[in-house]
Amino acid sequence: MSQMPLHTLYNQMTDEELVRYSLHDENAFYILMKRYEPALLRYINRIMQASREEAEDLLQEIFIKVYRNINGFDINLKFSTWLYRIAHNEVISQYRKNRRYRSSLNIDDAVNDSRLLVNFLTDTFNMESDYLVREMGVEVKKVLEKLAPKYRDVLVLRYLEELSYEEISDIIQKPSGSVATLLNRAKEKFKKLAEQYQLERK
């Protein structure tokens, strides 16, 4: 029986298994990062509204930091949670250094984001989900951009990245109770901004 190619074997491994192999083989690390590249690029743009080039540069910085710190991976965390913690810290740090990033999220991505956000918007606004998607569409993205980073971040992590309270707690390193409070405040501020945005367009 022929031996399975190494890259095929790596592709079948869990994240945590790839982490172990990454300590000795850069190919394993490469496959691990390719697995998360699309999701992290979307995350960067959702928080920073960076240009494509700026987002890719920041992504490389995140990958470098992950590689340098992979020996310190906390086995009590899911790898994705640990990765998002590093990405979160880098994105927020870069956002604070330069607030003049331009949005590169295309219309299809923005509309998709609005659909994902419907889960909490329907509760917040007591509107039918079809109405929100049809009437707000890309505008959901524009309202998100007006939020302070700490509020935008928890909304993105919870409703766009679809992470649990516990995972968000590990990423932003705050207790779960604080995450719940932060999310409630974020939703309240989003509601006010959305109502203001709708009034301005009338």
Secondary structure elements and pairings:
Layout: H1 6-11, H2 15-22, H3 26-48, H4 52-69, H5 79-97, H6 107-125, H7 129-135, H8 139-146, H9 149-160, H10 165-172, H11 176-201
Number of strands: 0
Give the radius of gyration: 19 Å
Distance between the termini: 70 Å
Give the CATH level 1 class of the largest domain: Mainly Alpha
| Main sheet attributes: strand count, strand direction, barrel closure | none
Low confidence ranges: 100-108, 127-133
Describe this structure in words.
The chain starts with 5 loop residues before the first helix and ends with a helix. It has 11 helices and no strands. It has 2 domains: 6-97, RNA polymerase sigma factor, region 2, helix turn helix motif (Rna Polymerase Sigma Factor, Chain: A); 107-201, PhyR, sigma-like (SL) domain (Butyryl-CoA Dehydrogenase, subunit A, domain 3). With 202 residues, the protein is mainly alpha-helical.
List keywords for this structure.
202 residues, mainly alpha, Rna Polymerase Sigma Factor, Chain: A, Butyryl-CoA Dehydrogenase, subunit A, domain 3, 2 domains, 11 helices, 76% helix, elongated
